[in-house]
What we know:
By secondary structure, the protein is α/β, with parallel strands linked by helices.
Amino acid sequence: MSQNKEFKSGFVSILGRTNVGKSTLLNNLIEEKVAITANKPQTTRTAIRAIVNRENSQIIFIDTPGIHKPKTKLGETMVDTAFSSISDVDCLLFLIEATSDEIGKGDRMILDKIKASGKKTILIINKIDLVPKEKLLNLISVYSREYDFSAVIPVSALDNKYGKVILDEIEKLLKAGPKYYEEDEYTDQTLRQLAEEIIREKALRLLDEEVPHGIYVEVDKFEYRKTTKKEDIYDVYAIIYCKKNSHKGIIIGKDGNMLKRIGTYARHDLEKLAGAKINLKLWVKVQENWEDSTNIVKKFQYKNK
Length: 305
């Protein structure tokens, strides 16, 4: 740590509509895979914490579910989770799309919450590669009239080069504080939780539009052991829940091929994260209306720091 600089730390919530690129941005900022990404709305269901350790600061990000109009208990919980995080953080990142011409309903709802909180907020305008400069400048003007943002940063979330700029701006807004997490930690999620999210991501990506977003993964068993060759290995048994029998057939695929592909890709990511072999077994079960099950939905409720 630099001798003439005090150490800063703080919590930062990332807010935005569904599918605006929050999780992609987060993964780029911390340069690790923490939030799952899929080209589908409402991919993130919980408030995921991710940690960036810098020379003079520790920044803890909270990636929240996308703001949308809820139709189920799960949807209501996701929106509550996103807004509940605002009061617990030191500053906010508000992510919008450069392709917008004006402030839409979803962005307006978020902006009103930001105004009510009075929190220091950095406006991140994503997908700038899709619009001409004039349109971008107009959008900056529209938002700047609405709120006194601490900074406005146009980015392409897929491009890593913007990460340092964003982190530098956040660091300016933080106060002196302790290290909340150890230097080598980059998320507060357990390997078990990461396994559930990674399996779900692979299913979402591989199934594409065939199965709606209504799948839910639960790890039934997560146990460490040594192989006969004294290698580290985790036995991971997981259930993919879906809402219809027809969906179950699609997830399993002909001769079980789709389920095998989901398992292969998930195991590959998990082995990199765990630094050990993974013995992954997957099952598929039908549970109608799970999105309105109180027992399941409570897993996604926001827990403050």
